Amino acid sequence: MGKSKKNKVIKIEQVSDGYKIFYETNQKNLLAYTIHYGLLNFTEKELMNMNKAGGYTAVYVEDSIIYAKDMSLWEKLVYIMIKSYSNANCEAYPSIELLEDSSGHSHTTIIEAIDKLAERGTILAVRSRRRTNDDQRYMNNLYKFKKPNDSEYLTYIPLNLVFCKSLNINAKMLYIFLLAKAKNGYMVTVTKEELKEYLCVRTWDTVKKHIETLHQLGFIYTYCSAAKGPEKEKGIRFLLRRICTKELMITDEDIENVIGTEAVS
Predict the structure, then answer these.
(1) Are 222 and 21 in contact (CB under 8 A)?
(2) 109-126 tens-digit pLDDT
(3) Which helix (H) or strand (E) holds 66?
(4) What backbone torsions phi and psi does residue 33 show, to the nearest 5 degrees?
């Protein structure tokens, strides 16, 4: 997705019918093109890796889970994976093997995350059935979720990201963090320090690798520098691709409230 790496993106601005991408060519020419809102939504073909049990393409997740400082990235992702199978009663019962096979993450890691989530009461895990007398592991757990209160914001997360086998935990949670920050629409600006702190990494190069991977796979349409100042205050402006439900669609009011991108030094 987006322009070739040979063309450096200088800034991203929101306009009446989409976003204007300014980029610099190898010849140092400053050019621009407009990407319309609809082209930033995932297509049906791109959403094929979805929750096969429920037939859903996305799941609503509480921001309190996404931002929780006392939960590891693994716990957050496993919570989201399990919740993608939940029904109207906030109950789900996917097997560990189903979660493992569909996501590409290890059996042990998923079990450990579930135990942590159950210990702190984030989910209620009811282990009710054994496999056989020789195999003492449980066949299926029954998971119960707390119903979010009406005032809590929920982030709409595409399952083709959650269950993407070519992405690691950090890349997945980076994109989910950006979605939560974006709220309504596709554009968001965050500082480098925010991203490093959320992913619990020390170097910007590590974060940048995840950003580039998400860019190559089409989850991030494009990105650029967005603020001047000391290193800890430098921001990155992202243009995301997402599933945009009716309640998340851009409105005239949103456009009027957009703050223009600062020039890149």
Answers:
(1) yes
(2) 888 999 999 999 999 888
(3) helix 63-66
(4) -145, 160
